[in-house]
Design brief:
about 260 residues; 12 strands; alpha+beta
Length: about 260
């Protein structure tokens, strides 16, 4: 068994050229702790089928043009604006470092004003690799993601937040509320709006595992503090891990 850590990162150079993402947003799958593009494990291109923001390949001259400085916050803001304005959800195209296709993700068209919740992951020849689905909270259940396989293997389910995380959240919420009110009061008295506490939120760590007894060890983990993913390559095809991580990452950007 080998566990591998990776992150999904925005290709900053492409983003700087893309302005309002008219040429398509690009992301990289990188080993955790690595930020150099030459060490990418896979590249991801967003393609909008309505043609408004088609991810056309960039010309050589465009790729060589000097890029202005762009921050991650600016790039993520562009991504949010793009996802909100596009009439259709984007397709995701995954390429290996050598440029050969790995797989693609095709979202189902959602109802108006809603983000897609069902996705099909396809091999380059069109064979279905798996399906991904996102399920909102229904009491008493937490929100969760589900990976289903066409060959009948047990599905993998990833609930948002672990049970210990939710217990800690429930126990510490009153203390956080008290600290927030105190910081708000101090801010009002001193006219300093930099004292607000904004880093608190519901648990986000997500663990994908099946329910088939001995195989309950995690196949994929999203670690919120490190903003990285860990996958067990004995239990999950790397293409499925990348696809689920990318869809999960874009869903988080959309909010």
């Amino acid at each position: 068994m080998a566990r591998r850590d990776f992150t999904i990162e925005i290709d900053g150079a492409t983003a700087a050229h893309a302005d309002a993402w008219t040429d398509g947003a690009r992301f990289m799958v990188l080993p955790a702790g690595e930020h150099r593009a030459e060490h990418t494990s896979a590249r991801i291109r967003l393609h909008f089928p309505d043609g408004d923001s088609a991810a056309a390949p960039r010309s050589e001259s465009a790729s060589e043009a000097p890029a202005s400085e762009v921050t991650v916050a600016e790039v993520e803001d562009r991504m949010r604006r793009l996802s909100e304005s596009s009439t259709l959800p984007p397709h995701l195209e995954f390429d290996a470092p050598d440029g050969s296709p790995l797989c693609s993700v095709r979202p189902e068209q959602p109802p108006a004003d809603r983000a897609p919740e069902h996705f099909t992951v396809l091999e380059p020849d069109g064979t279905v690799l798996c399906t991904l689905s996102r399920h909102g909270p229904r009491r008493p259940h937490r929100p969760y993601w589900r990976i289903a396989f066409p060959d009948g293997r047990p599905a993998l389910t990833g609930h948002k937040g672990t049970l210990p995380g939710w217990c800690a959240f429930a126990l510490l919420s009153p203390f956080w509320l008290l600290l927030f009110l105190l910081s708000l009061l101090v801010g009002l008295l001193t006219f300093d709006d930099s004292l607000g506490i904004s880093v608190w939120g519901t648990p986000s760590r997500t663990v994908w595992r099946s329910r088939d007894g001995a195989a309950r060890r995690p196949a994929l983990i999203y670690r919120y503090q490190q903003t990285s993913y860990r996958w067990d390559d004995d239990r999950l095809d790397h293409r499925v891990a990348y696809a689920q991580a990318a869809v999960h990452h874009l869903a988080a950007l959309r909010g």
